[in-house]
Predict the structure.
Amino acid sequence: MRAPVSWLREFVAIPSDQDGRAIAEKLINAGLEVETVETLGAGVIGPLVVGHVVGIEELTEFKKPIRWCQVNVGVEHGGVRGVICGARNFVQGDLVVVALPGTELPGGFKIAQRETYGKLSDGMICSARELGLGDDHDGIIILASDHVVGEDAKPIVGVGEEILDIAVTPDRGYALSIRGLARELAIAYDLDFVDPGLELAQLPAPSGTSVPVACSSEDEQACALFTLRTVTGFNPGAPSPAWMQKRLVACGMRPVSLAVDVTNYVMLELGQPLHAFDVNKLQGSIRVGHVADGTVIETLDHVERTLNRDDLVILDNRGPIGLAGTMGGFATEIDESTTAIALEAAYFDDGSVARMARRHKLSSEASRRFERGVDRVLAPYASARATALLLEFGGGDYVGMTAVEAPLEPTVIDLPASQAGEIAGMQIHTTTVIRLLQAVGCEVDASTDVLRVGVPSWRSDITDPANLVEEVIRLIGFDEIPSRLPTAAVGHGLSTSQRLRRRVGMALAARGGVEVLNYPFVGEAEFDALRIAPNDARRSSVKLANPMNDEQPFIRASLLPGLIAAAKRNLSRGSDDLCIYELGSVVRSGMGAPVARPSVTQKPSDDAWAGLNAMLPIQSTSIAVLLAGQHSQQTWSTVARNYDWADVIEIAMNIAHTTGADLRVGPGNDESFHPGRCAQLTVSGVEVGVAGELHPRVIEALGLPARSCALEMDFDEVIARSASSRPAPAVSAQPVAKEDIALIVPESVNTAAVTSSIIEGAGELLESVRLFDIYRGQQVPQGSRSLAFALRFRASDRTLEAAEIASARQSAIDLVIQRHGATLRGA
Amino acid sequence: MSGPNTSFDPKQVSALSAESVDAVVADALGAIAGAASLADLKEVRLAHAGDRSPLALANREIGALPPAAKAEAGKRMGIARGQIKDALDQRESDLQALRDEQVLNEETVDVTLPVDRSPMGGRHPLTTLMERICDVFIAMGYDVAEGPEIEADWVNFDALNVPPDHPARTMQDTFYVESPDSGVVLRTQTSPIQIRAMLERDVPIYVVAPGRVFRTDELDATHTPVFHQVEGLAVDEGLTMADLKGTLDHFAQEMFGAGIRTRLRPSYFPFTEPSAEIDLQCFVCRGESISNPDKSCRTCGSEGWIEWGGCGMVNPRVLTAVGIDSSRYRGFAFGMGIERTLMFRNGVTDMRDMVEGDVRFTRAFGLES
């Protein structure tokens, strides 16, 4: 809502020393967000005067027609001056705005006497655009004839006018009007306020020359008040007055014609949307109601709209002629030949208009106001004001008003007098509560401790005691509220998941990982590039109805597409070596069955709550890592080494070590990964993820560096299977015995299996086993490899005897031989 | 060569004379002093203190002396061997020190060489900032509450007193899942976590709720369709706006320094009543830049205050929707954008830096923001 300060001053006597910024400050403190304070023609410096065009000579020898004008700017400004002008929208005798030499216009454009088109031009005749007053005007400004030659033109054209631009929150529909803002200012400045909305304009008695257009309502719920005032004999060519046009422009609206301008002007002033019908285009009477699904109407914006039976429409005998409170129809639009006008002013239910505006994706000045609540009783007052303006500037006869109205049901709220103070946390006297409620327009019956508060008709947002409390506290000022700390309950600290997410993040970052937070939006192309099979769950089945990008309508079921996109972005920016990770939410199922919307007037039942949750896809936390490029570069102290599959498995182990999960690595199988370099990750026998080198075709399709590696694990599964507390180990101080063994094992047997057998065979004396060498070649048969292990034996209570060690070692060897077809190397 | 001196031979025994021993000692001390290296000294030790050194050989002759002379000769020999040993030890110690000085000097390295064998990574500053905020509230007795990103619109809107036709529900703002009628949305705010907390926990409730939220805004320097908020909720008997203000002041001071204040401006949120915008006193200029062109402040644009978030007293309608008796309990709630907080707190100038995952951006923050 743009509000010119001069307009506000018309309704409330704001002290003259208060400029736009000071006024804005008052409104902000009252809860109205003033976004900007703009000064019209802020760049105009120096004299701007009213000039009288006394002579025009057309110069035709130039490429475009030029006028050599004689303009009288008053004796005090040098009398008649010659001015060159390119505009053609004025005639001899018009009053215009002249910038005299020495004036500076917006953009630093200085006016001076100058030779041009063979004449000495001694000033400039100005357009609105040149004065920084708006973009809509072609041609120069022509002033009303009642101005005095030589007079200062700045206030006439609005130079220096301050305009407040206010972002009105959805609860304050009344503030979408000069009337509503003026009331707030009257409260803020503690001034008297005479409500211009409830003063009925004086209209002549109905002329009786014809009958006013009749009206009726078929839906009193949605339309509790509908009025029509009819004017005939109206002069369609009469212009709207300059002051009205100026204000409309200042408020961001384009002047169109007298009838349209008046409806807009009164809407801005009082907050009542109005609509004018051309009576001669109407068929019969007007009614408010509904039409069958599929009925079509062409609206003023020349869009054909297919109506729904829930739409609230205005109809004549032929059919729909407007969307109630949203936009009128094209067929009954007033135009340059309209001489009879039916002026609609009505109260439409906020929900009906909101649904319709949303359904037709049509937001108008009218619908914005109705959605936020229009004054229930304002319609006849606003239409009287508008009719008076039409008659004043367009002539014609007032024929009368027709109206239908449902019984008025005022809102009355019982408010304990102490409640505002209890909620604010400070003493507020009952007299203060009453005074402030009265200032916003309430009627207060204070005969008991529970105040009986009648809510004013323009405050449909006030429905509960809490709304009244807010009014009182905001008008006292939030600055008055003391600051105090509550004694909070005893908390429980972080949950296991919250704590472990932090720990894992720190562990990954400490080993070089960089966290990325990717958008969750994915699409078919990414699934295809990752070779994900058509029915795989990672082709998410959770799809957005209105995605940002039609190529990515799905919500991720895997973090890998996002990580890959982030990797590519980094690679394109020259970060060649990447270890990036994300810990984030993914979907693990499709959507559940939709359920009915529970009431909000009581707690949902356990079943209803369970149903709401079952409607959602299963969502859990996933962790993924992507490695690309070099693990280390060639430097004075390191040799170059690329990241490989073992790095990513080590990271998986590191995550498990951090959470306390007993992670096992086995051969895996995943379409996105290299079939021979993919590990399945399990905890307690449950698969929790996959790690390894990405499939070469995936790497190729995605343009990643060769041998890029990745892992992804279900973090919730990992922590669910992590030890909640860890038993302390027995740390023996007895001497260690070290034994090395080398076993020749078929290639088909994996190291983890051999290691398990060694641990099992060696028994409890074995403290640790570590693979330290792999050998293929001479002395080792084709298809086998030699695995060399370092074994450490130790007892908790004694130095081990040589025979014990030898026996344990032999048991280990025997089991590997027996289980895996191995042979002891060197035996 | 020598054995028990069964047939007494005065000439052989002369090696045990005082003169002879002195001469041997002098010879040894000279050799020790002359040893230039530890290797030389090792040879000197062998020659003058070894099994075949003159003293060792002479010592063997003691047995041949008459009993009366044995004690004296033995004593003399002991002193001589002691002298030589001390000299050897001293010289060895000196030479070792000398060698260390030389070798360690040769081993000097340039300790300013770049050491980046295992470069540090970094956690996203939005993550660490959210953790930091949560920690402030954990210290005040709050728990950290969470909820799903894909949420029922009843939880995201209805229960928060945003009725189905409310302007905030327009298609322009909200991502709908599957179809606009599915009843499922990407949560547009962290406030649905309030509803979950109130339905799933017992009063009194003190929770802080960080999370990722979604709105259909195109990514540009100041907007992103995916961003983060943190939300606080307290529901207890007797809570007032004064408690809300005190909590926000404490929070501001923990995050931005002692003495930093907050200011509340009336506003509108469907789920709080009264509702307010939270302004944070500028922690850089502390208000000194207001109307003071000489001290203009980039952080607050010389306004003295920074818009931080929204807050208010929980609307009794919200309490009703979750079955909390609003005549007995009151609540307050507040929330703020994490991206916005990081922008003014850490001087991030472009939203895209926090979104794109450029490792150079994140690594610069290390493990803290």
